[in-house]
Design goal:
- By secondary structure, the protein is α+β, with helices and mostly antiparallel strands.
- It contains seven helices and ten strands.
- Strands 1, 2, 3, 4, 5 and 6 form a six-stranded mixed sheet that branches. The protein has a two-stranded antiparallel sheet with strand order 7-8.
- Strand 5 (73-80) and strand 6 (83-89) form a beta hairpin.
Length: 178
C-alpha cells in the first residue's frame, strides 16, 4: 500500500498546486471510514468545468487510458506509481435528469497521507450518488454506517444534486427526516 499512498500524495499535491477543486470518493473513501476493508483504485471527482485541467495534471503523472465525455461528464483512467486512478469530471444521473453538485463544499474533511492533505468527499453525497447509480450494496453499507453516527449532515442529501431527490430515495432516507 505504501506505493499507492505515494501516488495519492503526488496526485493530491499536483491537483492542489493546479488549483483544482477535487475530492476522493468511492471505495477509498469508504475504507477511510471503516466501511470497506479494501480499495483498488482512487476515484477523483472534480467539477465538470475543471475536468480538462485535472486531466492535464494526471496525464503528466503517468499512463492515461482513452477518455470519454458523455452528457457533459468526463471520465478517464490513469496508472502511475503503482496506482490506478479514475477521474470523473462531473456526474450525471441520466435516469433522473440530475447532475451532481461539485464544488469546494464537496470536501467533507481532509486526511493526511504521507504529509499531503487529501480532501475526502461527504459520505452523505456518496450515499445519494450510489443510490442513483443503482449500487445497492454500497448504498446499504453507507446507510448502515450513517445510521450509527450522531452527526449526519442531512442537508447534504439534497445539496449534492441539482434537483429534487426521487421520491423512492426520499422514502429510503426518511429516518434522517429528509
Amino acid at each position: 500500500m505504501a506505493l499507492k499512498e505515494k501516488a495519492l500524495k503526488r496526485l493530491t499535491e499536483k491537483l492542489t498546486a493546479a488549483g483544482v477543486d477535487f475530492t476522493l470518493g468511492a471505495s477509498w473513501l469508504l475504507c477511510q471510514h471503516g466501511i470497506l476493508d479494501v480499495y483498488h483504485d482512487f476515484d477523483v471527482v472534480v467539477p465538470a468545468e475543471q475536468a480538462e485541467q485535472a486531466d492535464k495534471v494526471l496525464s503528466r503523472l503517468g499512463m492515461r487510458s482513452e477518455a470519454e465525455t458523455r452528457d457533459g461528464c468526463f471520465h478517464a483512467s490513469y496508472h502511475f506509481d503503482g496506482a490506478d486512478v479514475d477521474l470523473c469530471g462531473g456526474l450525471f444521473f441520466a435516469e433522473y435528469g440530475l447532475r451532481a453538485v461539485l464544488n469546494r463544499e464537496s470536501a467533507a474533511e481532509k486526511r493526511s497521507v504521507l504529509g499531503a492533505e487529501v480532501p475526502l468527499g461527504h459520505l452523505e453525497d456518496w450515499l445519494v450518488w450510489y443510490a442513483l447509480m443503482g449500487r445497492e450494496s454500497r448504498f446499504e453499507a453507507i446507510l448502515a454506517h450513517l445510521q450509527a453516527q450522531p452527526n449526519v449532515r442531512r442537508e447534504r442529501f439534497s445539496a449534492c444534486v441539482d434537483g429534487p431527490l426521487p421520491e423512492a430515495l426520499r422514502a429510503r432516507l426518511a429516518g434522517f427526516n429528509v
